[in-house]
Amino acid sequence: MVNKELIRTNLITVNEESTVSQIQNLFKYQRNLVVVNGQRYAGIITESLAYRFNSDLSVTKIKNIMQKAPKITGKESPEQIAKLMVESGFKLIPVADPDDIYQGGVLADDLIKNFSNYLAKINLKVAMTPNPVKINIKTTVGQGLALMRKHGVGRLLVMDGNKLVGIVSLHDIVEKVIKSNFKQRRDKRLGEFKYIADQGIKSIMSTDVKTLNHDLNVAQAFELMVENSFSSVPVMENGQLVGIITKEDILKQIAIPPEYGTRIFVQISTKNDMQNIDFDREVINEKVKNLIRKYAKFLNNSTITFYIRNSELKGRGRMHFEVRLQVVGPNYKNSIIGEGWGLRSAIINAVSNLERILQREKETMPRTGEEFVRLLNEILG
């Protein structure tokens, strides 16, 4: 059971009938805001959700863009809550009773602090994400956003050749570009967003980048994050960038310790108007378990996200769905599409498409010394 001291009862809440413009200044105090309907928990609203490009801040109500974060009752273990945070993508998990009466919430920072002694025993190289997504200093904000979407990440490390010169996050883009240029009139939107997309990444990146050496521990990394209000820190070895440690990486260590072997986290993201569509999560769990058995070497410590949306196509009384399956991990990153009549069919098709790609990748990996030499000769011509 979670320590009652971890449950905060003074978190900021907003009414689901409020508009984005009415609550936008609250994000400076709390990145994830709890949405309520009276006394009942309704969802979570984040800055990235609030500033979707198709939203008019003055008229868009919170209930139309919020997402339903998983709730807890307070009887769950800290490890279970950490896993919910990783799989939901939210750093705040609300506490509510069986009737959805809101009672408080657990923040990621509080949860991580509770495990400081344990995290001090874990080396950064074990917990960090190696080969972080990088971007050249000469690229634009639009190219950066495209790269974030492709790789399913919320930050990019900015490089000038082999030198780390900055870091840019989705929060930076919202704060420094979108909020400062966003107007309420729809007829100006296209021009505004073209201007935003063409801005150089250099103009918004943070240049005061603090780094950590690879031989430090996870607790030390978290201390640096808290001191500087960071959500991630690049990791260096012999002056070279070798990885990045994020709060999500730290939560993974709490949710499923490294000694458990293969660790895979599953996220499911749906559009707000699909939140009440019923689908069997066991279908996803079964398919992911099969992937783990076959491709653990590729997928260990990865997050697999199912982005589900329904299309306007209809046939024989059935809805047509598209599922984008995104894999983000230290050993493998990819994004695959599957579609079908009925959600179950679309999910199965997306996973099958991923499996075919993984099988091809697996077959190209050398399993013996002779195969390695043969592959090397092929690459060298």
Provide a brief overview of the structure.
The protein has 381 residues and is α/β, with parallel strands linked by helices. The chain has helices spanning 20-23, 47-50, 78-88, 108-113, 116-119, 124-127, 141-151, 170-181, 189-198, 218-228, 247-255, 281-299, 343-364, 369-380; strands spanning 7-8, 13-15, 32-37, 40-46, 92-96, 102-107, 129-130, 134-136, 155-160, 163-169, 212-213, 232-237, 240-246, 264-270, 302-315, 318-328, 333-341. It folds into three domains: 4-106, CBS-domain (Roll); 119-252, CBS-domain (Roll), CATH 3.10.580; 264-364, Double Stranded RNA Binding Domain (2-Layer Sandwich), CATH 3.30.160.100.
What would you say this structure looks like, in words?
The radius of gyration is 22 Å and the shape is globular. It is α/β, with parallel strands linked by helices and 381 residues long. The protein contains 14 helices and 17 strands. The chain has three domains: 4-106, CBS-domain, CATH 3.10.580; 119-252, CBS-domain (Roll); 264-364, Ribosome hibernation promotion factor-like (Double Stranded RNA Binding Domain, 2-Layer Sandwich). Helix 3 crosses helix 11 and helix 12 runs parallel beside helix 13 (343-364). The protein is 36% helix and 27% strand. Strand 12 and strand 13 (240-246) form a beta hairpin.
